[in-house]
Amino acid sequence: MIEQLLTFEVLVPWLASMAFGIFVGATPGLTATMAVALIVPISFQFSNPNVGLAMIIGVSFTAIFAGDIPATWLRIPGTPASAAATLDGHAMAKQGRGGLALMLDLICSCLGGLIGVILLILVAQPLATLALKFSDFEYFWLGVLGLSMSALVCQGNTMRGLMAAMMGVLISTVGMDVVTGVPRYPLMETLGSVDLMGGFNFIPVMIGLFGIAEVLRNVTAGASWSGASIDASEKLSTKEALRTVVRYKWTVLSSSLTGTFIGALPGAGADVAAWAAYGQAQKMSRHPEEFGKGAIEGVIAPTSANNAAVAGAWIPALVFGVPGDAVTAIVLGAMLMYNITPGPQLFEKDNDQVNAIFMIALVTQFLLLPAGYLGIKTFGWLLRLPRRVILTSVVVFSVVGAFALNNSMFDVYVMLAFGVIGFFLETRGVPLAPLVLGLILGDLVERKLRTGLISSGGDLTPLFTRPLCAFLVLILVSALVATPLMQLIRKIGRPTQ
Question: What gap in Å lies between CA 329 and CA 322, rounded to an integer?
């Protein structure tokens, strides 16, 4: 099987698609979903289905990793799954350790993807069965659990973090009612904007909050316009990164397991997995106060989880034909074009094709190492250009990225508006990451709660009596109680002077 994949016919388009994934993932506004959607028509030009699948799988993993490159150096997430990387990754870059942060991202992305693929091979059917047991109520609690991460990612500033998260949830309610289809706010009818009917897409909002706000911060800070954006003396220390990964091996493992599990839940996605792993790592850390200030674990956890989630999303896709996220939804359509029908029968009737998919996913993790390294080096070289060039490029790419989503100037205006809002919030000490998380999960939380209540006839008891719901509630309460409880224990155990 491996001999059939490592041929000139397969490797050339495979590596070319991974290079394309690096470019798309590192460009703010161009998501991994967009990269896969663009590569699928090209993959149909090859009669060998393994070539097309290698291109699609390769582009999805590399795009998710590449989003960490601008997130670390510019504090602009290349993809939504990289938003968590802006916290400690960018903090390390400001400390002159951006090269180390990105090498950790690369190695942990490969390891996270590798663990996710191995779990996909070993436990695909049991995990997919568990995922299918999730009703609307379980998804509601999963969303609430994700929102509770706001308190974890804002150590020492919990109330402002929760306020930002609730602000994100409020923004997510703009548009049509998810059940009745009626415009929510009279202002929408007053303005007569058709664009407002669709609400705010979180990608232009995210680009504005992190990208345009960062440009405004640089402009108002009086930074040198002729100086380089990053230190030219920064080195990519592979040995130091490997030693660090070995030191934090349990963080890599636990985050990868979390990412795979969340990725296997249809609709959850790599962005939710990254935030969940980040919060989990902070809870387990001996130094939670360092998170957000350049903590190694804060870099390792989300990047291990988001690539593992990409592998996890293939579990329900392959076993039951249910897409785990937008990427696998596109992949399912591509597989049907190749006369490959996902589902339980695929494992019985075409086990060789299943093994080929598994092998492609495994080999992709190893090919990601050289592809990602070249991507880091290339973007590192570009970022040594004068600051005025970089900041101007950030604005241009931000505008292009926002416009490219729907070919709409409305998204560009949204991006610019939230850039100003993000700059203002940061000057007031309000963190931006929970706002993005609230915007992403707000729609999920509301939709699942309301559809669940409709199915139960308005009965709230399934929210607490269903076994999986009770388990998620227990995790939620434990997460919220753990921090103050540990602080109290440390205070009691501290010797009096």
Answer: 8
